[in-house]
């Protein structure tokens, strides 16, 4: 895949940084990937920072991973999705989801990648009880 795929991880506190650090320990450095937290900046400031990245990149495929559907980071990504139709927003970001995404983002068609990313993120959530 030769197209630029722009990736944002937007989460509360230091979660985005921790997730990207973990992914990069497993898969190596990830290009065109940016992390944002609502800890120090207002939603307006974050929106302006993200929009500047979007405009500078001219990317046609953009993913915003957020931690909590309905939270402030989700609301920000949703607002950006309404403005930029090429943005896909995925909530519930977790490490299985991100490893799938980054391991395959230059190998798969974008729609297929998004579907696999969400499916693997869901498969990464399991319950172990009584050894079963």
Give your account of this protein's structure:
This protein has about 130 residues and is of the alpha/beta class. It has one domain (about 5-125): Phosphotransferase system, mannose-type IIA component (Rossmann fold, 3-Layer(aba) Sandwich). It has helices spanning about 15-25, 45-55, 70-85, 95-105, 110-125; strands at about 5-10, 35, 60-65, 85-90. The chain has a 4-stranded parallel beta sheet, sandwiched between helices. The protein is globular. The N and C termini lie far apart (about 40 Å). The mean pLDDT is about 95.
Question: What tags apply to this protein structure?
Answer:
alpha/beta, single chain, 132 residues, Rossmann fold, four-stranded parallel sheet
Summarize the helix and strand pattern as letters. Answer: EHEHEHEHH
What top-tier CATH class fits best?
A: Alpha Beta
Shape: globular
Strand content: 15-25%
CATH superfamily: Phosphotransferase system, mannose-type IIA component
Q: How many runs of DSSP E, i.e. beta strands? A: 4
The name of the CATH topology is Rossmann fold
Q: Separation of termini? A: 40 Å
Structural class: alpha/beta
Helix content: 40-55%
Major β-sheet strand ordering? 2-1-3-4
Count of helix runs? 5
Domains, number: 1
In this structure, how is the largest beta sheet organized? 4 strands, parallel
Rg is: 15 Å
Low-confidence stretches: none
CATH architecture classification name: 3-Layer(aba) Sandwich
Chain-wise SSE layout:
Elements: E1 5-11, H1 15-27, E2 33-37, H2 43-57, E3 61-66, H3 72-83, E4 87-90, H4 95-104, H5 110-123
Parallel strand pairs: 1-2, 1-3, 3-4
